[in-house]
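Sequence in, structure out.
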Amino acid sequence: MLRLIRGFEELALGLVTSGAIPGGIHPYIGQEAVAVGVCSALGPADRLTSTHRGHGHVLARGAAPHRLLAELAGRVDGLNGGRGGSMHAADLSLGILGANGIVGAGAPIAVGAAWASRHGEADDDAVAVAFFGDGALNQGVLLESLNLAAMWRLPVVFVCENNGYATTLPAATAVAGSATGRAAAFGIPAEQVDGMDTEAVRAAALRAVGRARSGDGPGFLECRTYRYEGHHTMERRMKLRYRAPEEVAAWRERDPLPRAAAPLDPATVAELDRSVAEQLAAAEKFALASAHPDPAGALDHLYADGLRPRAGVSA
């Protein structure tokens, strides 16, 4: 899965350059261990909310790469018919309640899903996971979500992917206190983990998910990670310089992919790489062969229909 996410993002970068993916993307390269570690700890009924940098979460949860790539390209065979694109991909059948272009906005959705699981509107032992970046730590919507989750002892795990930067702003210059301190203020058990180590993230996620599932309330993980690419592909054109080359090089020494491959037999690694390459080649072929949406249907799905009001509520 680590290799699949890395290869998918590298392929997507090329398709942004060629113009096949309009608007650009927020690459997840470098942060793969967080998505893989957390999602490997989830059960089939669990749910997650993602971020603007969400391809890794969506893939790690089990979404089909060819349909996600088609979504990024705005094609009708995409996960959401080409209407969600990079920042709003979703697959409700897998419990993926959506990536989100608004910083921190997935947290209250995850809290709502966790509330529903405790009130008979979903599987009783389902856990919700909210991914967000360090840039969300000062957002009121996240703090409100932490408060409600703690007050109601909801089965939700908050996962902060702290890659050190909110766009170009260093987290150290914007966040007073600490990420885990935010959770501690609400009485939520919090743990800081090496976000470049897949097994360490998985172990921490298993602990937090296990507590939430057993009824012990929410948990909080701060995964210290790093993105090797810019905040957005537009940075390549803008040629922004806000990180020292030495800093990037030091983090590249901790790349989660070689770390995970080290214990494996080289022949096994080569076979995994070959399999992923074939899968991504097929995904690219599928995505680019898919049709563009008909402009005549641009207003379809703009408003919800078929809504069913709760008992005792007038329509």
